[in-house]
Design a protein that fits this description.
The complex is a heterodimer of chains A (about 425) and B (about 375).
Chain A lengths: L1 H21 L16 E8 L12 H14 L7 E8 L4 H14 L4 E3 L4 H10 L2 H4 L3 E4 L15 E3 L4 H15 L5 E6 L2 H13 L5 E5 L6 H13 L4 E5 L2 H14 L4 E4 L6 H6 L11 E4 L10 H13 L7 H19 L6 H11 L23 E7 L5 E3 L6 E3 L8 E2 L15
Helix pairs in contact in A: 2-11, 2-12, 3-4, 6-7, 8-9, 11-12
Chain B lengths: L10 H15 L4 H26 L7 H19 L3 H23 L4 H14 L16 E2 L20 H18 L10 H24 L2 H11 L1 H6 L4 H27 L1 E2 L6 H14 L7 H22 L3 H22 L3 H21 L1
Antiparallel strand pairs in B: 1-2
Helix pairs in contact in B: 1-7, 2-7, 2-10, 2-11, 2-12, 3-4, 3-5, 3-10, 4-10, 7-10, 8-10, 11-12, 12-13
The chains are: A alpha/beta (about 425), B mainly alpha (about 375).
Chain lengths: ~425, ~375
């Protein structure tokens, strides 16, 4: 018994000592968490390693490239932006623990562009940034639910929702492929549910709909899908899935000599990612694609030119693709939001700035932003393009034709949106 | 076994640890409390592997899948039938145990690489079943909330800068006041993380206590006998097949509890929360802990939680690039795993015990 007591005492002392070490000194609090006289701290979680990281792992480098440029040119009112990036390996558990670290240990002011619907949902449910008053800027997912300001009051979306995309595809089909037989490949989850809702609103009647379970996409599965599309004699086949599903489908179709009119959703439509999986670029030729931001090869576009120049200097040798452009665009918008939040930005003033001025933020997209006091909806539309023989998406006929809509029952209209000119030197004003 | 005195169940020790953890949870940072929850989940999951692999000698690469069964059972019952949370956890244990029973019956016919292969297939295949049944919520999963729902989290940490001794003294001071008045002076405000930690830590203590006592019972002995030499065990009258299935069932039930707690700590269940990497890191934790002793389980769990943080600090000290920072945790864990297998194959705790036993044996022989 004596031995037990001694051991218990020892254990208790050890535990106390650990706690003593754990409770580290906390520096004097500034006016707002994550904001000091010299810097503003932002946090980002996304997959940097693992199978899901392909393409996405370029985003931190892209965002940092812009922030470094901004910091070298005076920052935001003299404060430099410090972006802390953590790898969540696309696993919700990791996203939660890394976000915990960002908020509780690194004490970031706001989260920027966290990626993945399941991850953002898990973080909202567990870490609960809303309750902590932490802004979640420009989530990197098109799930329409995140624009729900009651459920996610501090979250701002940026990508057009999957519903908007499906509605715009539906409109384009009505205009260009009336009377044709349409086939749809979609992912059997929230992503696909959003798409189906959009197509329904647009009034598209499908000759055949092929759902696939996330993770089940493979060349063998694609052969099965093709059989179904062939049996239904589909003229136009819409691939509304992730890149790996698009790649499996296009690769297998090329082998089997199956050539319908392809139409690619933006999630699985990044040519760089598709080509990385070994699909020959030529297969993409003539496919219809959708994007909210200009073609990444369009060097006549002032934003694309500006972003690609900065990126080439910051990350030499890395291709400037859609992930990079979107990453830099979100960083660019975050800089404007921080600038608009006043000389001493707080979490509250940051969100108020997006609510009141967000819709006018300069950014590369060719479609309007939907931010207002009652809406956290970001981009609201797409332009329609065609893939070239090298796999690059560019506007049909050389001019961007953009459509805009909402995630509800609103009509799809051709947009007359005039994009704001890029601020001088690409710095927020 | 030369010590033949009655085995104590160590109940007072477990209760004491529980009380200490409860008190501590009121005075440490929220981040540490949430990491404590993760450690508790790992403690439970790793102890289930130690029971299965270390004692009954069966390898499982599929414990992530068994955790998923428990998590989904708890979440679905909570959402569809609004079952009290304690029953959800019980159901998680039962559901995973049934899964383990079925798997165990197959496993009793397999061994070594074949068993590893079967369980590996389960870890890969099972979580994606969620896409087949709408009730399981597909890839995005479903919410899993344990009440009480709405605590105000601490927006700003309010601790004052203190020295190491200052911290210990102030905690002792607070304890004294608490004992005298029954109040909690300076205790951090109630938070969701604290609530989760209490549930997870209590579950960990209960399951550790249970596992410990099962391992010290006749079942534990028959598992070890079967692991050592199956034929000899059969000759001694042990039904090794049944004993293996039982080990699988109990281990799975415990893993199910860990799964439900993991789901609680992220507020959702989804297939991607139970990746293959989870099964592997549990096995890694078990090896680091010393696969044949329950005592090291806390070491294994703390390592799994602490390594990414340590790697982060090291990488920042060195000012290394992003690719180093992101790959360093994996590198450190793998390095530790290799070192463990090379130098302390039975884990640090077992090694220490063996050395002590040797030392004592040497002493008693010189005294003779």
């Amino acid at each position: 018994m004596k031995a037990l007591q001694r051991r218990t005492l020892l254990a208790a002392t050890a535990v106390l000592a650990t706690v003593g070490l754990a409770a580290t000194a906390i520096p004097a609090q500034a006016a707002e968490v994550g904001v000091t006289a010299t810097q503003i701290k932002l946090g980002m979680t996304l997959p940097l390693t693992g199978t899901a990281s392909l393409g996405y792992n370029k985003i931190p480098g892209a965002a940092k490239a812009y922030f470094d440029y901004l910091n070298a040119n005076g920052g935001i009112n003299g404060r430099k932006i410090n972006l802390v990036v953590k790898d969540d390996r696309y696993v919700p558990t990791e996203a939660v623990s890394k976000t915990n670290e960002l908020i509780l240990k690194d004490k970031v002011m706001a989260l920027l562009a966290p990626l993945g619907t399941a991850n953002v949902k898990a973080v909202a449910s567990s870490v609960n940034p809303a309750r902590r008053g932490v802004p979640v800027l420009f989530v990197n997912t098109g799930f329409s639910g995140f624009a729900d300001t009651k459920k996610y009051p501090t979250t701002y979306t940026v990508l057009p929702s999957y519903i908007m995309e499906a509605k715009i595809m539906g409109q384009y089909i009505k205009e260009k492929f009336a009377g044709k037989k349409i086939g749809l490949l979609y992912q059997d989850d929230d992503f696909g549910t959003d798409a189906l809702a959009g197509f329904k609103t647009a009034g598209v009647n499908f000759a055949v709909r092929v759902p696939y379970a996330s993770g089940s996409q493979s060349a063998a599965a694609a052969a099965g899908w093709i059989t179904k599309f062939k049996a239904a004699e589909a003229d136009v086949v819409i691939l509304f899935g992730v890149s790996s599903a698009t790649s499996a489908m296009l690769g297998t179709a090329a082998q089997l000599g199956y050539k319908p009119q392809w139409m690619l959703g933006s999630v699985g439509g990044d040519a760089t990612t598709i080509k990385l999986t070994g699909v020959p670029a030529g297969v993409l030729r003539g496919a219809i694609g959708f994007s909210p931001v200009p073609a990444t090869t369009d060097m006549n576009d002032e934003y694309v030119k500006f972003f690609s120049d900065i990126y080439a200097k910051a990350v030499p040798g890395s291709a400037f693709d859609l992930n990079v452009l979107l990453g830099m665009n979100s960083a660019f918008m975050a800089a404007q939001a921080l600038k608009a939040a006043g000389p001493n930005p707080t979490r509250k003033s940051l969100m108020a700035a997006i609510d009141s001025k967000g819709a006018t933020f300069a950014n590369s997209a060719l479609v309007p932003l939907g931010y207002s006091k009652t809406s956290h909806v970001g981009l609201t539309g797409y332009w329609v393009g065609e893939y070239s023989v090298t796999g690059d998406l560019s506007p049909i006929g050389g001019t961007y034709v953009t459509y805009t809509t909402d995630s509800g029952s609103g009509a799809v209209v051709k947009s007359t949106y005039k994009r704001p000119a890029m601020p001088a030197k690409g710095l927020p004003n | 076994m030369h010590k033949s005195k009655k085995q104590s169940t160590h109940l007072p020790l477990f209760i004491l640890v529980g009380v200490v953890l409860f008190i501590l949870s009121n005075f440490i940072e929220e981040l540490r409390v949430s990491q404590g929850t993760t450690i508790a989940v790992y403690v439970i999951a790793i102890s289930s592997i130690i029971l299965l692999t270390g004692y009954s000698g069966q390898v499982s690469l599929g414990h992530g899948a068994l955790m998923a069964i428990g998590a989904y059972a708890a979440a679905v019952l909570r959402l569809e039938f609004n079952l009290p949370i304690i029953l959800c956890f019980v159901a998680a244990v039962l559901a995973a145990a049934i899964g383990g029973l079925l798997l165990g019956m197959a496993a009793a016919r397999l061994s070594g690489p074949y068993l590893a292969g079967t369980t590996l297939a389960l870890a890969i295949g099972l979580p994606s079943l969620a896409n087949q049944f709408p009730i399981l919520g597909g890839e995005q999963g479903r919410e899993f909330k344990v009440g009480p729902p709405d605590f105000e989290p601490e927006v700003v940490a309010a601790a004052e800068p203190l020295t190491f001794f200052g911290n210990v003294l102030s905690i002792l001071d607070k304890l004294q006041t608490t004992l005298a008045t029954g109040a909690w002076p300076g205790a951090s405000p109630m938070s969701t993380y604290k609530w989760w930690f209490w549930i997870a830590a209590l579950a960990a203590l209960i399951s550790m206590w249970t596992v410990r006592n099962i391992l010290n019972s006749a079942y534990g002995r028959s598992w070890r006998a079967g692991r050592g030499n199956e034929v000899a065990a059969q000759l001694a009258g042990i039904n090794t097949a049944r004993s293996k299935v039982l080990a699988f069932t109990i281990s799975a039930g415990i893993a199910g509890l860990a799964g439900a707690l993991l789901a609680m700590s992220i507020g959702t269940v989804s297939p991607s929360a139970f990746p293959l990497a989870l099964s592997f890191s549990l096995l890694t934790g078990a090896v680091l802990a010393g696969i044949t002793t329950l005592g090291g389980v806390i070491i294994g769990s703390v390592i799994l939680v602490a390594i990414p943080e340590i790697a982060d600090v090291v990488a920042h000290r060195l000012g290394s690039s992003e690719s180093v920072t992101t790959n360093l945790p994996g590198l450190i864990v793998s390095g530790l795993l290799i070192l463990t297998v090379l130098f302390v194959p039975n884990g640090p705790v077992e090694q220490h015990r063996a050395r002590k036993a040797k030392h004592e044996a040497a002493h008693s022989s010189t005294k003779k």
